Amino acid sequence: MKGFRDDSEVSTNSTTTDEDVFPLPLSPFERYMVLDDSDAYPMSIVLIARLKGDLRRAVFEESVEFALRRHPLLMSKISKVRGLGWCWIPVENPSPQMSWVENEDGLQPPDHERIDLTREIGLRIWVSKTPDAAELVFEFHHACTDGIGGVQFIGDLLACYGQKTSVEGAEAPEIEPIQIDRLKARSNFSSDAGEAPSKKVSCPMMLSRKLLKLLRRQPVPLAVSRKANSIGTFLSFPAIAGRIIERPVVQQLKVVAARKGVELNDLYLMEMFQTIREWNRRYGNGNDRQWLRIGMPTSLRTPLHDQMPAANVVSYMFLTRLASDCTNPDETLADIHRRTSTIVNERQGRSIAIGLKYVLKVPGLLWCLLRLNRCFTSVILTNVGDIRRQFTARFPLKQGRCVAGNVTLDVLTGAVPVRPNTRLSTSVGTYAGNLYINMHCDPLSFTREQSEELADLFVERLKQMIPADIAAERRAA
Question: Using omega within 30 degrees of 0 as the cis cutoff, is the peptide bond preceding 177 cis?
């Protein structure tokens, strides 16, 4: 088809082969992801793409194969290699578990077991198709990739599909080169090849003090209504409650942030603290002397990671506050902005990633820490930003949405995993001007009714931040 290039031109660079990179030892963060995996709490990311148009199965499956060749960690298992420890080993002719159904009822909740990377590759796909639309559910093992890498994989898949289905003379997606050998740098968090992590970040004593501070301030989890659980229907995979805030309201929130001199993400964090506090007052004891904590996945990508295939290059940063300190919105927002600015400017996310290296030097220590029966984080909040900017492929646009041949990406949403006693992970991202909010609630603790109530609470709190004069200005415009 017009615009389609030979796979060899786009799948890797011209000099590097899989044999030059693999077997590839797991990074400390990947080892953590594997150790923290369990049947009850699988370490998986779920991304859901909704398409408009008649998705062609044969071309779609060819495009999956193409995208897998560009992202070798998604076509690999893990195995112990003498002298190297646990390593990624690519699978020849990988075939991810895939379900394809054609019906008018949409995707039915699939039977679900965790991905075992010692037995299968870290990708599963479910497709529900009608003649004019399709819903695609992608499950990625989090050791293979973070959310950005998952989005890049889906972008490459759709770009390949678009090149194969574009009509003669129509603009087709463009696929950028990939350099497989960049995977070796996925644990290098310097800004460039000559920068070493600062002593402030890498000093074991400093890291120990940060860890002890986190452990001393034990946060409370989201409260669970046992009464609701006794009569409700628990969540099934994928357990996501989604909400959309449309472009005009998003623009109003941007005006609010600008007036207050903060970032949009600071507004999300403040209202998440308020949501936790209000929810626990409804269904828990509502003690304002309790600690609340939000975990923020933070990308550690630098120019060293440009053109790198999908991988996990994130760390976590934490914001911890007493519930009583959340009563003054302006003070809370100002403090959150100061702290998030420091995190970004000093790239403090490196401290957790570097600290894992030291923890793993003590045999069994990380395994024991992960199995402590305590809450480390009340909720997780991930801001993926503008979805289109996460694609490495480039697409023609129609009303702000990516066009891939005979289909259009209507929306791409998803959520990161929940953990024991961290009963909610929320992701926010924008696409075609709209803000998409996805709440992944612990399916062992929350009913569908509760997850919908929680999503409504967070959205309403965001909307209540918009003062009457800003809302009136936008209506007049």
Answer: no
The CA distance from 422 to 375, in Å, is 6
Query: CA angle, corner 366, sides to 365 and 369, nearest 5?
Result: 90
The residue behind tokens 């009340």 is: 378
Residue 456 tokens, joined: 């409504």
Q: What is the pTM of this model?
A: 0.89
Task: Average the pLDDT over 237-242 and give the result.
Answer: 81
Predicted confidence at residue 1, as pLDDT, reads 35
Q: Tell me how far the alpha carbon of residue 248 is from its chain's centroid.
A: 25
User: Pairing state of beta strands 407-415 and 424-431?
Assistant: unpaired
Mean pLDDT of 13-18: 49
Beta-carbon contacts of 308 under 8 Å, excluding residues fewer than 6 positions away, are 178, 179, 182, 183, 185, 186, 301
* Contact criterion met (CB below 8 Å) for 4 and 163: yes
Q: Give DSSP secondary structure letters for 55-80.
A: --HHHHHHHHHHHHHH-GGGGEEEEE
Q: pLDDT category, 240, cuts 50, 70, 90?
A: confident
Does residue 339 have a pLDDT over 50? Answer: yes
- Give the integer Cα–Cα distance in Å for 398 and 70: 27
Closest C-alpha to 63, from 1, 118, 122: 1
What is the layout of strands, in order, in the sheet containing 123-130? 97-102, 123-130, 133-141, 44-53, 407-415, 401-404, 397-398
Does the pLDDT at position 8 exceed 50?
no
Q: Is 183 left (phi over 0), alpha (psi -120 to 50) or beta?
A: alpha
Mean pLDDT of 65-82: 96
Please provide the size of the chain in residues: 477
Residue pLDDT, tens place only, 172-220? 999 999 999 999 989 887 655 445 444 445 566 666 666 667 667 889 9
CB atoms within 10 A of CB 255: 16
Q: What is the DSSP string of 171-217?
A: ---B-----GGGGGGTT--SSSTTPPPPHHHH-HHHHHHHHHHHHHS
**Six-digit token pair at 204?**
């074991």
At residue 242's C-alpha, the angle toward residues 122 and 383, to 5°, is 65
Residue ranges of E strands in 278-422: 291-299, 314-322, 379-386, 397-398, 401-404, 407-415
Q: What is the pLDDT of residue 70?
A: 96
